[in-house]
Design brief:
It is built from ten helices and 13 strands. It is an alpha/beta fold. Strands 3-2-1-4-5-6-11 form a seven-stranded parallel sheet, with helices on both faces. The protein has a two-stranded parallel ribbon with strand order 7-10. Strand 5, helix 5 and strand 6 form a beta-alpha-beta unit. The structure holds nicotinamide-adenine-dinucleotide (NAD). The site of nicotinamide-adenine-dinucleotide has 24 residues, from helix 1, helix 4 and strand 5.
């Protein structure tokens, strides 16, 4: 029996990679998004251009039984988008509306099998992420809640929304908290890009011996997970009986300065880092993978530098195409 799957946010970075994986696995896939994937041809069997804030549109999507629904659509971006405060109202309204519609219409239709929700490391309290060398992001540390952005608050609300539908209506849900996913075919310019893609672009654009700008002192820490590893984790979670929320991330924590120098090394360029003012987010963050190792026996296979090398090559090709 062919598996029927609905991917919401199929035109985005993670969504378009997920559609590719599901097709490779032999599923029938309907994708939906405001836009087609920017960098790859969609391979979904059907691709609906539609606004998931519109309940009528979402209602129509459930015209058949979906064994699996992946809800990845959100109004989001990197630090330059979610930490300035300028987009807070849109982020909260748009993403909450999408989640309410996708879950409610699915439940009402009776055609919703199992649903995956992509939450974020941004739900973790700021007070546990002040020491860059010792951040705490275990799943049970989410409360008392104190995310540092409205983006994080919306994710926390939506986690609770999905858990409520599981509790009250018996909808099988799976929730992952992603930690900085990166890779080829992600946003790399325009203001919504995240640190790995932004730094790959800056390094690609500079000459050997040149200078690149880093927001803040660059001593803030993060971990980054390569897209293929992320999709492996999502598929494993979806196939399991474990509801989550669970971290899907890497435990290889680096400072932003180290990340920049790793990319420079891959590019075989000497670069100087110039520290400037910019939106930063929390001081330190790292995935804590104890729960996912225990429940799903999952962990990333490859070191950060492997994924960075593939991402740098792709961003460099994009930069050169624009010249
Ligand atoms: P993305 O921005 O590339 O993809 C999100 C997609 O949602 C976009 O294609 C966008 O057009 C679509 N979308 C937004 N509003 C919509 C609407 N009203 N109707 C239909 N489609 C709409 O982001 P991504 O990196 O692929 O992230 C996917 C999910 O994972 C998001 O929910 C994000 O919050 C979550 N997440 C991502 C990361 C990461 O590092 N990439 C980290 C934590 C959580």
């Amino acid at each position: 029996m062919t598996k029927n799957v609905l991917v919401c946010g199929a035109g985005g970075f993670i969504g378009s990679h997920l559609v590719q994986r599901l097709k490779n696995e032999g599923a029938w896939v309907r994708g939906v998004d405001l836009k087609y994937p920017e960098y790859s041809r969609t391979v979904a069997d059907e691709f609906v251009i539609g606004d998931l804030r519109d309940q009528e549109i979402v209602h129509k999507l459930y015209d058949r039984r979906f064994d699996e629904v992946y809800q990845l659509a959100a109004d989001m971006g990197g630090a330059g988008y979610i930490f300035t405060g300028e987009h807070d109202a849109d982020v909260m309204h748009n993403s909450a509306s999408i989640n309410l519609n996708v879950l409610h219409c699915g439940h009402k239709s009776g055609n919703l099998g199992k649903i995956f929700y992509s939450s974020s490391a941004c739900i973790y309290p700021e007070y546990n992420q002040l020491d860059p060398q010792n951040p705490k992001c275990s799943e049970d540390s989410a409360y008392p809640a104190a995310p540092d952005s409205e983006y994080g608050w919306e994710k926390l609300f939506s986690e609770r929304l999905y858990l409520s539908y599981a509790r009250n209506y018996g909808i099988p849900v799976r929730i992952a908290r992603f930690h900085n996913i990166f890779g080829p075919e992600g946003t790399w310019k325009g203001g919504k890009e995240k640190a790995p893609a932004a730094l790959c672009r800056k390094v690609a654009e500079t000459t050997d011996g040149g200078e690149i700008e880093i927001w803040g002192d660059g001593e803030q820490t993060r971990s980054f997970l390569y897209i293929d590893e992320c999709i492996n984790g999502v598929r494993k979670l979806m196939d399991s009986n474990f509801q989550g929320p669970v971290n899907i991330g890497s435990e290889e924590m680096v400072t932003i300065n180290q990340l920049a120098q790793m990319i420079a090394k891959i590019a075989e360029k000497m670069v100087t880092l110039k520290h400037i003012e910019g939106p930063l987010g929390v001081r330190g963050r790292n995935s804590d993978n104890r729960l996912i190792r225990q429940e799903l026996n999952w962990a990333p296979d490859a070191p950060l530098t492997d994924g960075l090398a593939k991402t740098y090559l792709w961003v460099k090709s994009q930069v050169e195409e624009l010249k």
